[in-house]
Design goal:
The chain is built from 23 helices and 13 strands. By secondary structure, the chain is α/β, with parallel strands linked by helices. Helix 1 runs parallel beside helix 16.
């Protein structure tokens, strides 16, 4: 039998491999997918049996693919947009220039599957904007009232008021204009204000399509950037960035982003709850982060270091981040740069680049809390000149190519080709193997069952030890928390002397927002996190050892990575069931992949359980504090919080400890159950199922085996 598999030679090849036949990864993947579609069609023509349904499900499940996420942080003007443009090789792609970037908008950049540029705009809900406008109007009313009344004695912290007013005014001016006559909430929410974006009113995503990068750059400005020159006699053009949750841009002909997403992120989340939740979710999924700062102020730039310190728990133990790249931009910017000869300019750049790298590494070494989550081998510094690179100058003296290579390597590591072909080879091996008859099936089955039971027991022992180690660390954290909560409350509730009036509004916002105060230009105040800090400090080191984001050991001291039924050795002993053993080997690899995905997600739930438990315990307290009347409100809020924590301290921290241990136990049980269920089913169907309706796939198996061997050889050749 011969299969009619159309050649995909006409497709552009990402790579060309050596051998008797030049196979590209695209061609191999395309051909194997066609073979598996053909095989699926064969199975669907057969009677629905347990084995038949299992095989169809396995084939359909081959298409799972994981994307790597790279988060890009940095203050406005640091050169993030130019950096992304340079790395993907698109000169006029993301807009940059005189307009102030709207730091509340997250921008994802991915590869497109067609030849058009696309922008998918996701909005916050109509209800969320209603609540946000209401809060802005309430805040303005509170400030006006306090300007007339004496709430507490003391000086007013006007800086916070002005910044808050300015932020609110920018949002309202963008959408409604500086010369707006609107006064009531109903007027602000009138549907006629949103007639250009009906998707917002219907809670749908708006998709825009463009023929060029320049057209896209111009077309998305009103959704991503803030033009401060609204009104003032000029024609008013509505800007919709205050309503935008996230913009996903898809770029054609960008192989470097095939399995990688670049995300331009605001530095400290957002006061809007849904945007903030999305921000935390994306930060937690980043396998790499780029911290971007101008080279001439890199050591003194506080904001970029604050971003790293404030996000470290989300990236490290609470996330998936393996690499932190500090990127110094505008390396070619000198006041008198053009006055020097080309040779002198190069010498000046190299000297400053070296100095900047040393300064950044020195600064990183001082961040003790960051180093609990990341070792120094996870941290790397790059110096770049994005615009010069795009103009074709300084290619050899900017590290843009190094960043491109990093992304390409990241892309290659998660190419779906090898995973898909390996899985297909295993499935076809099982199909063909079950057609053979052997008297040793039961003997092999029993030996594999013993191997499986031994492996599951090793996993259980590793999980039990982890539970015991966590319990010991957390118990110490509970005692420290009980002794130290007073100091935490003092620094949180009494931060400034003689600034009661300004702090009254901060604390009021904090209790109304569940213990969190977010300010656009200042450090976040999170009372829940501060109360949890002694517990997290007690567990951070053990947590990092148990769930490493980087390295070859893997979680739970390598017990998942080392899982094996010893199928390769058994092939020598039972060569007549080699095909079934080949399937089981690929099934081992697949279950390891599934478990690692499960653990990546599960460990976030384990780590966040501490602060979630504290938040739950504190919610009633915040509600009571928010009811405080104007007169004496600041002192009443302070006393309400202090009294609640003092009364709850003997149970609150112990409850948080139990919550983390419960999440850990739940994850451990899910891992053990998944291994037991998956491998038991695979063993049963490989050796104990009689099914005469299984089709002959010998031709398909032979073809896929050749492609699989070719892929493995090429993969070995590419290894350094």
């Amino acid at each position: 039998m011969e299969l009619d598999i159309e050649s995909s030679d006409e497709q552009p090849a990402a790579k060309q491999h050596c051998g008797e036949v030049q196979f590209s990864e695209e061609r191999i993947l395309s051909d194997v997918k066609k073979i598996m579609v053909h095989t699926l069609g064969k199975l669907r023509q057969q009677i629905n049996t347990k084995l038949n349904n299992f095989l169809k499900k396995k084939i359909i499940g081959l298409n799972i693919d994981k994307r790597e996420m790279v988060g890009v942080f940095g203050k406005t003007g640091a050169g993030k947009s130019s950096l992304i443009n340079a790395v993907i090789g698109k000169k006029n792609f993301l807009p940059s220039g005189d307009l102030s970037a709207c730091t509340s908008v997250m921008i994802k950049v991915e590869a497109s599957i067609n030849n058009k540029y696309e922008a998918e705009i996701e909005f916050i809900t109509k209800e969320e904007w209603h609540d946000e406008v209401w809060s802005m109007l309430q805040y303005r009313g509170d400030v006006d009232q306090e300007n007339d009344d004496d709430v507490d004695d003391g000086d007013c912290d006007d800086d916070n008021d002005e910044d808050e007013d300015d932020d609110n005014e920018k949002k309202l001016s963008a959408l409604y204009g500086k010369d707006r006559k609107l006064t009531s909430l109903e007027q602000f929410m009138d549907p006629k204000n949103f007639k250009e974006i009906p998707e917002f009113l219907k809670s749908r995503t708006k998709t825009l399509t463009f023929d060029s990068a320049e057209m896209l750059s111009e077309g998305i400005i009103k959704y991503t950037r803030n033009d401060s020159n609204q009104g003032g006699g000029k024609e008013f053009n509505r800007l919709y960035w205050p309503l935008v949750k996230c913009v996903t841009i898809k770029v054609p002909n960008t192989a470097i982003l095939q399995h990688v997403t670049l995300v331009d992120l605001p530095g400290n989340g957002d006061r809007n709850k849904s945007r903030d939740e999305m921000w935390k979710g994306i930060v937690g999924k980043c396998s790499t982060v780029w911290i971007v700062a101008e080279i001439n102020r890199v050591a003194a730039e506080k904001e970029c270091w604050e971003i790293l310190k404030s996000t470290v728990s989300l990236l490290g133990n609470g996330g998936e981040c393996q690499n932190i790249h500090f990127i110094c931009t505008k390396s070619d910017h000198f006041e008198d740069f053009q006055d020097h000869s080309a040779e002198d300019r190069l010498a000046l750049m190299l000297k400053r680049n070296t100095k900047a790298k040393e300064e950044v590494k020195t600064e990183f070494s001082k961040l003790l809390n960051v180093k609990k989550h990341f070792s120094e081998d996870s941290f790397e510094v790059f110096t770049v000149s994005s615009k010069e690179f795009l103009r074709g100058g300084l290619e050899e003296n900017t590290e843009i190519p190094k960043l491109q290579k990093f992304l390409q390597d990241l892309n290659d590591c998660h190419s779906e080709t090898l995973n898909y072909v390996s899985g297909a080879y295993g499935i076809l091996s099982l199909i063909q193997g079950t057609r053979g008859k052997t008297g040793k099936n039961e003997e092999v089955y029993e030996e594999l069952q013993r191997n499986k039971s031994a492996q599951v027991e090793l996993i259980k022992k590793a999980m039990d030890k982890t539970y015991s180690d966590f319990e010991e660390c957390l118990s110490k954290g509970v005692e420290t928390s009980k002794c130290s909560f007073g100091k935490t409350l003092k620094t949180s509730l009494y931060p400034h002397k003689n600034r009661n009036r300004g702090f009254h509004r901060i604390l009021k916002c904090l209790v109304q927002n569940g213990g969190i105060y977010k300010h656009k230009n200042k450090k976040e105040i999170n009372l829940n996190m501060r109360l949890t800090s002694f517990l997290t400090n007690s567990i951070d080191e053990e947590f990092k050892k148990t769930f490493p984001n980087k390295g070859n050991t893997g979680p739970f001291n390598g017990v998942i990575t080392q899982f094996s039924l010893n199928t390769e050795k058994l092939k020598q002993k039972y060569n007549d069931v080699e095909l079934q053993l080949t399937f089981l080997k690929t099934e081992e690899e697949k279950v390891q992949t599934e478990l690692n995905i499960m653990i990546r997600s599960g460990k976030k739930a384990v780590y966040s359980s501490l602060i979630k438990s504290i938040e739950e315990t504190m919610q009633e307290c915040y509600k009571n504090a928010a009811r405080a009347e104007k007169t004496g409100a600041l002192q009443n809020m302070r006393e309400t919080i202090e009294r609640h924590v003092r009364v709850s301290k003997d149970t609150m921290f112990e409850k948080a400890k139990k919550a983390m241990l419960a999440e850990l136990q739940s994850l451990a049980e899910e891992i053990q159950e998944t291994v037991e269920r998956t491998m038991t089913e695979a063993l049963e169907l490989s050796f104990r199922t009689e099914d005469n309706a299984i089709p002959d796939v010998s031709a398909e198996l032979e073809m896929v085996q050749k492609l699989y061997d070719e892929l493995k050889r090429n993969s070995t050749k590419e290894m350094p």
